[in-house]
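In pairs, describe these two lines:
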Amino acid sequence: MSTLKSNVQINSQKSQENKKKWLKIIEKLNGNYKKSKFEGSSKQIIRARERKKLLARERIELILDIDSPFIELMPLSGMNYENGFGPGGTNICGIGLVNNKLCAINSNVGTRKGGSVDFPTVKKNSRMNQIIIENKLPTINLVESGGANLQDQAMLFNLVGESFREITRRSKIGLSTVSIVFGNATAGGAYVPGMSDFSIFQKKAANVFLAGPPLVKMATNEISTTEELGGAEMHSKKSGVSDYLAENEYDGIRIAREIMKIIKIPKAHFIPKKKIKPPKFSEEEILNIIPVNNKIPWDIRELITRIIDDSEFSEFKELYGPTIVTGWGELHGYPIGIIANNGVIFSESANKATQFIQLCNQNNIPIIFLQNTTGFIVGKEYEEGGIIKNGAKLINAVSNSKVPSITIMTGNSYGAGNYGMNGRSFEPRFLFTYPHSKIAVMGSEQLAGVMEIIRTSSAKSLGKKINKKEEKDFKNKLISEVESKASAYYSTDQIWDDGIIDPRETRNYLGFCLTVVYNQKIKGSKKYGIWRH
């Protein structure tokens, strides 16, 4: 492999000014992450402490192996949801090591709205279920929830049912779920421990029932205490819903870790053995090389140079279709293929990427997509040259590729370029976004310009007089709206990604995700849909 070189003047004034702008963007990102870590008011925290309760993040820290990494997923989902409970909703989810086994972990934030589940939270759970099944992970649920937020019940109902279905489907194929109940698990929430392979109830704290004492009194006129109706000891001694009775939270976590010792998981498909060589250029320099202004072009190789091992890259078809860069390398010792944008996608670029996807599938190598494109080229000459046909080939290849893929949004992601570069709808195993990224059908100014042409043409055909001020106001309002909905924060709010990341953390995120995808056998596809030649 050849060693990539850098052509950026890191110490130039322009480069340093760009980094300063990035640091302000990252400061805002960190501020939002701080909000997502909110676990309730001081009153709620004090109340939890008085009851000798741990907080959700403390439970995660204790269940994980010492020094285990933990990749938190979708921490800002629902940050703009009007009736929601804030960024991240009322659960924390991610992947970490428990007894040296990769596990998905879901922890209810019981001190935030009682752990009640709002719409963004259940959407987050739905995405997590997809991640678990695709990556064949066992699951640990740290349960303390007041059930569904009734204001959202119409939107929650089917998705909650889906989450119960997925627990049992995972069990069917040998992917165990362990649930520790630290507090309430009421109504539909009672089915989480009920459907788990292993259930641990905390003595004098777990309350698991389909209906609480007041509802039972109304429905049947039966009077019972919370402990009699759904307490941990009753479920451990009489109903059999509980498999283990924990003395306290620490004991419950200890039991769960013991269970993980006996749970069988697939043997890792590949574990790097040789010493890992870091990139030859600092990841800190990523803030110097990527323009904050998405309209300014830059060479994607500068990013690749700073994330792959030893900056060694075997580029495929380097001189052909230069607006897509393809090639092989290693990242934290894991073999990877890379498909990365260097601008608008031409027919040659699409054809090159299509061939490269086939090669990665033939050789069972995961693909990392680095998106930064305004889409496929348009115009008479390119239509005659078959841009639709060639773009369709790329989308066909992405759709039918079977090797795991990870997508990073490093800039623009417009139109069908998003599809051809493995956007959310094409189900990459993981997808992360840089905070300055934009995702839309097209750029805001282009979209507003198209609408202006259409409105002007329509007015002329109807014989209407064009009001220039109204048209200008309409255009400015449209640009503002499109910009807002194209932003990374809108995307992450809608769970179009698995999180917004500091670009300097790209290598760390990719390394952990590759550990997850290489945890099972990788087998590519040799079959694709019909495409035109």
In short: The mean pLDDT is 91. The radius of gyration is 26 Å. The CA atoms of residues 25 and 272 lie 35 Å apart. The first strand starts at residue 2 and ends at 3.
